[in-house]
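Troubleshooting: if your tokenizer reports a length mismatch, compare against these two reference records.
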Amino acid sequence: MLRLFLDNRIGVLLLLPFFLLLYLLGDIIGAVPYFGTTDSAAFLTTPNWTYWGVAIFQFVILLLNALGLNWVFNSQEFLEKNTYIISLNYLIFNSFFIDFGQFTWTPLIQTCCILLLAVFFGIRPQNDARKAAFNAGFIFGIALFFSSKLLFFIPVLLIMFIVLRLFQLREIFLLFLGMATPVFLLFAVSYVAAISFVFPFEFSWKLEVLQWHEITIIILFHILLVLSIIGLRARLLKASLRLKKQIQVLNVFTFFTWLIGLGAFLFLGQISLLSLLVLPLSFYFAYALLSSSLGISSHLFFYLFFLSTLLKFMVLSF
């Protein structure tokens, strides 16, 4: 299976719905909340859909996200050749964060972050980046509709941008203008249509009592992160300057996502921010799978991780 996705064979993308169907079937057999709670701090009202309406919605968005994330990896030349393991990594790693029977805005938050990374990776230090700055801010402003807690990520965007462009005052201003534009448009529409919107940013801190399976998932993801870093270090030894800049941006996103996401999970019990860690891990672990130094160990861990994503439905349904 890994060999098919690691090679430059675009036809393997047809197998992605099969993996999602496996998780959907597992959810039907053992549909239990297994990791944290959904993030309700959104502008938009949660739709009151049936199980199959929610399942189809999440199935389609996850599939599009997998394809989009893989396109970003290949189009920005993170490797010398195209590979399609990124899409598979995304679906498998993300399976712990998605409950097909419960509606959540998490997949759409991930969609916005994929688009955001695509904009950042497209910035060239020697070129004007005012348009990219506004676009990045605008995408982030849309993401705020799905989770107001993304406000914690505003400093992260600034650091990512400064890593690429140093401190350009006009571009930073356009970044903030882009963030404010969707929110301003929302309140303008609400004023004209006489609809009341309240920014949902109220929450109370409380240290959560973790279940054994939640601790297990956190440990698995940290092992995944360690293996990914080992593979990434080997890759950076022969990386171009452009790739090193892109990795620096991704490292900033990864560190703060881990920090903020883990804090939101431990003190608020919510997983939407922590789930964003799946995006950089999907990139990083591709290097681990292709690393000659890690060899069989990374492949073995991948299969064990995949097996655990399937077994969780049976284990947690008892």
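Reference record two:
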Amino acid sequence: MAFDTLQFWGPILAGTGAGALCAGLGRVVAPRRKPKPGWGQVRPGALHWTGLTLSAGLAGLMAYVGAFIGSARADGATQMQVLWWLMVAFAIGAAFSLLQMYRIARADIVWRGGKVQFNGAGGTRTERQIADVMSLTRSASGWFVAMFDDGAVLRIDPYAKGAEALMDRLVEIAGEGGATAL
């Protein structure tokens, strides 16, 4: 039995290539912005990057196996059908991670002292005083929602980098003002 280089390296390269391609796409969708000195920043965290690259990598690996290797077993057709469904599920997971990263980057949340700046629902840049937070809740999707007295809404992904520090600051300042907390 001869060693087949392509059969060995092909799936590895397919998975690595898909993961790297999606990581590059993640950098385009959620570019790293250097925060202003003294300002805290919310940006995609390790869970987002891990979900994106590993889901895409596994989807690429499964696609390669399904397209070029297959299965020689008696139930091979069923195995390949399950493989393709799994590949689709992992590709959807990668797309979902990418969407979450885009939402975090689009919100562009920064804070310093008692004020927070973010892009609102219409995409307009807004600055609010943290003391103006009327309620802090958790949505069904798991995101934290800060509602300001003028109706502005700030949504924060709890898995984003910097989200915990911002939530601590919101609870510290808004909690003193009598805001409804989590």
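Descriptive notes for reference record two:
- The longest strand covers residues 133-138.
- Residues 76-107 form the longest helix (32 residues).
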